[in-house]
Amino acid sequence: MIRMRSTGGSQVVVELRNMGQRVVENARKTMHASAGRIVQEAKLNTPVDTHDLEQSIRIEKSYGTAGRLQIDIVAGGGHIDAYAAEVHENYNPEHAGEGTKEKMRQNPGRLIGEKYLDRAVEDEEGKLNARIIGAISKVTTKL
Question: Could you say which DSSP state residue 71 is in?
Fold first, then answer.
């Protein structure tokens, strides 16, 4: 009969738990940073009138089941809800005001106008996947 004994098993379990926590923390940090970049891009894409629309673009976060982070990027609120939706879906650059024209001059090559949120998300989306994988890899390569 062969008898074997293993020691250090509880240390492995603790290390795996710690690693799992670090993965979650790194993923959350990465998501927060990505959301911040989306907000910045959306604000750059937004037409300018009174700056209310730009200033209304924000991050709303909540936590779902099991503490799962949920981040929404929203525009509007209060008196500009309908305006935010109208500009996002149907903006006509031919009717751009002076503020928007100045913003266009300051940002040549950038589309200022409709789908300002969608375009900001699309720009960040592919990068986010790679960044999440990188954040996870940082933790798991320390095994």
Answer: E
Q: Is 42 exposed, middle or buried (0-12, 13-18, 19+ CB in 10 A)?
A: buried
DSSP labels, 25-68: HHHHHHHHHHHHHHHHHHHHHS--SSSHHHHH-EEEEEE-GGG-
Q: What letters, b where the CB count within 10 A reaches 16 and e where it falls short, cover 65-99?
A: eeeeeeeebebbeeebeebbeebbeebeeeebeee
What global pTM score does this model have? 0.81
Token pair of 68, please? Answer: 């799962």
Specify whether the CB–CB gap between 125 and 34 falls below 8 A: no
> For residues 113 and 124, what is the distance between their CA atoms, to the nearest angstrom?
18
List, for residues 108-124, the tens digit of each pLDDT value.
999 999 999 999 999 99
